[in-house]
Amino acid sequence: MYITHLSLTNFRNYGRLELKLPQSVTLLHGANAQGKTNLLESIYYLATTRSPAADNDQQIINWDANQPDEPIVVTRLVAQIQTANNKKQIELRLIKEAKPTGMSFRREALIDRRKVRLMDLLGNLRVVLFVPQDMALINGSPSARRRYIDITLCQTDSVYCRTLSSYNKTLEQRNAALRRAAETGRGHDVVSILTDNLVELGSEIFKRRAQFIASLALEAQKIHYESLTGRHETIRLGYLPRLQYQGLARGDDRQVDPFIETADWLASETDVVNISQRFAETLKSVYDKDVASGVTSIGPHRDDWRFWVNGRSLASYGSRGQQRSAMLALKMAEIKRMRQETGEHPILLLDEVVAELDGQRRALLLDYVQNSTQAILTATDPTMFTNRFLQSSSTILVQNGRVTINQPSPENESNQPSSPASSE
Predict the structure, then answer these.
(1) pLDDT means over runs of 10, the chain (424 residues)
(2) CATH 3.40.50.300 residue ranges in the chain?
(3) Burial status of residue 412 (CB atoms within 10 A of its CB: 0-12, 13-18, 19 or more)
């Protein structure tokens, strides 16, 4: 799978861009704040319908186009995609429009110029994103780790994605019903119906997450042990399903075993009915607490996952180098799993991560890059790459939202710039 053409209109600092991309490695270089990361963001957004950087979608609308006196502003992202079996075009539109009641904002998704649900766009373009901020997954909030799992799984598992969407809607309805029951003493029958729906949907999410993380963990452990640490260090990636009431504080590994045992059971359980029964019983046991608080305290919306290195919490005791190795192993495992699931390489997007790696980790990552179908990297300084790497890659100079393309020239060690791509 690879992108042959990318078109951006009113996206970030790109008023208009038409860019052909080769089926190989492309290096985007230039000074900071010129638009390199924005190009990666546009591809990731098309693949996942989410921005890795913006707090809300309106932030990615081009500043010059997004003026108060403009009655309508349209941001368009379009990619022509070549897969092993066919060609397709996917498109996302962000439309901001002035109406008598105020400004409205909506998104539209299209596949081959036909409007589809936003969810139907997922899986048509698959990417793996490497950014320095990935390190925050280790030390950050459980919600960020859940978001990573959800985005990754939704690219290959449409059933999971639909189930997750339905679960989140049902969860919101159940929480509202719990609050009404607490305030009025009525509506417990409504909570019961919503609980049944939540159990059915949540049990499927528990199982698919457990299976996904178990497969990811095996590959990450192998990569980390054999390729990144010379068989000196072991890592453990563990799923912590919230199928029991007790929580688990950061750095507290004293009570982790029950969570791991539950995760192992979920991954091996063949009958989702057994999972549903356990989920229902746990929700019943905390029902009075949930009514009093007005929130659902048990379920996959409270899940987490963590790393351990040599048996100790990576977040609490791991060095910066150990944390980099763990994240690199996780991303490489993600690439391999996605390839196994779909039969095609995902597109690799690497934003300034090569500069943060030592020689061994950099060499291993670039080996993955050069063996991929398509990879797009950013760097402020291209001299950190070898001449051999540069000669086998296409390079694009990015300056203030304008791009100048250099084609690989094996006969010459210096890449000579070609004519600029269409950019306004």
Answers:
(1) 95 93 92 92 95 87 81 92 92 89 87 94 93 89 94 94 96 96 92 97 97 94 86 91 76 76 93 96 95 95 93 88 89 91 92 82 83 91 86 90 71 42 56
(2) 2-126+344-423
(3) exposed
CB distance 423 to 34 below 8 Å: no
- 185: Cβ contacts below 8 Å, ≥ 6 apart: none
Burial (CB < 10 A; 0-12, 13-18, 19+), residue 196, is middle
| CATH T-level assignment (fold) for domain 137-327 | Glutathione S-transferase Yfyf (Class Pi); Chain A, domain 2 (1.20.1050)
H or E element, residue 204: helix 188-223
Instruction: Name the pairing type of β-strands 402-406 and 304-309.
Output: unpaired
The one-letter amino acid at 204: E
CA distance linking residue 271 with residue 228, whole number of Å = 38
How far apart, in whole angstroms, are the C-alpha atoms of residue 424 and residue 71? 22
Domain 2-126+344-423 has CATH 3.30.1490.190: no
- Residue written as token pair 């995760």: 263
pTM, 2 dp: 0.88
**Nearest alpha carbon to residue 7 among 110, 76, 103:** 76
Distance CA 325, CA 327 (A): 6
Residue labelled with tokens 């260090």: 233
Q: CATH 1.20.1050.90 residue ranges in the chain?
A: 137-327
Q: Dig out the tokens for 174 from the structure.
A: 């159940």
